[in-house]
Design a protein that fits this description.
By secondary structure, this protein is α+β, with helices and mostly antiparallel strands. The protein has one domain: minor pseudopilin epsh domain (minor pseudopilin epsh fold). The strands form two sheets. Strands 1, 2, 3, 4 and 7 form a five-stranded antiparallel beta sheet that branches. The protein has a five-stranded antiparallel beta sheet with strand order 6-5-8-9-10, covered by helices on one side. The radius of gyration is 34 Å and the shape is rod-shaped. The termini are far apart. 20% of the residues are buried.
Length: 201
C-alpha cells in the first residue's frame, strides 16, 4: 500500500513537472504567435490605409469629373436654348465657359459666362488635381494661370466649342492626381454631345 502511495506521489510529481514544462512551452509559443499576429495586423493596416487614400483620391476625381460632365451638358443646353455658340476654356486647374459678345468697338469678343452661375469660371478645390486635355488624339498644352483672358482675346482661338445646334468639338478631359499613380478619371465628349465618364484613357 505504501508503495502504491509512493508511486502515486512520484506520478503526481512527474505530471506536475510535465505540466510546468508544457506551460512554459505554451507561453513561448503563444508569445511568438502573438508577435506574428501583431505583425500581420500591422501589415494589413498599412495596406488598408494606403488603399483608403487611393479610394479617397479616386472619389475626389470622380466627383470633379461628374461635375464637369454635368456642366458640359448644361452648357450644351444653354447654347441650343439661347441660339449662340459657347466656348469651353480649360486650364491646368480650372475651366470656364465663354460666349461670343458684341463689344463697344463693334467687334466680337469671347467673354466669360457669368450667368447661369454653373457655367461661370470654376477652379478645382484640390490643387493636387491637374487637368489634361486631348483633342483629335493629341494632347493639348494648357495654361497654368490667368489663361482664360489670354485664350479669349481672339475670336477663332477657343479649341473646344459648342454650336447653337448642340454639336461640340470632340475632346477628352482627364482629371489626375500625379502623386497617386494610376488614379484618374476621364470625361469623353463626342461631336453629338454624348458624355462618358470613365476610369482610364
Amino acid at each position: 500500500m505504501l508503495t502504491g502511495v509512493k508511486a502515486a506521489k512520484e506520478l503526481m510529481r512527474k505530471s506536475a513537472a510535465e505540466i510546468d514544462v508544457a506551460r512554459s512551452r505554451m507561453g513561448g509559443v503563444t508569445l511568438l504567435e502573438l508577435l506574428v499576429v501583431i505583425t500581420i495586423l500591422g501589415i494589413l493596416a498599412t495596406v488598408s490605409f494606403s488603399q483608403l487614400r487611393v479610394d479617397q483620391s479616386a472619389l475626389a476625381l470622380e466627383n470633379e469629373a461628374e461635375r464637369f460632365a454635368a456642366r458640359i451638358a448644361l452648357a450644351r443646353d444653354e447654347a441650343m436654348i439661347v441660339g449662340q455658340p459657347l466656348a469651353v476654356i480649360i486650364e491646368t486647374q480650372r475651366y470656364g465657359f465663354a460666349r461670343l459678345m458684341q463689344t463697344q468697338a463693334d467687334g466680337l469678343e469671347w467673354l466669360p459666362v457669368e450667368r447661369p452661375r454653373a457655367l461661370s469660371l470654376y477652379g478645382l478645390p484640390d490643387e493636387r488635381i491637374k487637368l489634361v486635355l486631348w483633342i483629335g488624339g493629341e494632347r493639348q498644352s494648357l495654361i497654368d494661370a490667368d489663361g482664360l483672358s489670354g485664350e479669349l482675346n481672339v475670336v477663332d482661338s477657343p479649341r473646344v466649342r459648342i454650336t447653337p445646334v448642340g454639336d461640340l468639338t470632340p475632346f477628352k478631359l482627364g482629371f489626375r492626381r500625379p502623386e497617386a499613380t494610376g488614379v484618374e478619371r476621364w470625361v469623353s465628349v463626342s461631336q453629338r454631345g454624348d458624355i462618358d465618364v470613365t476610369g482610364g484613357q
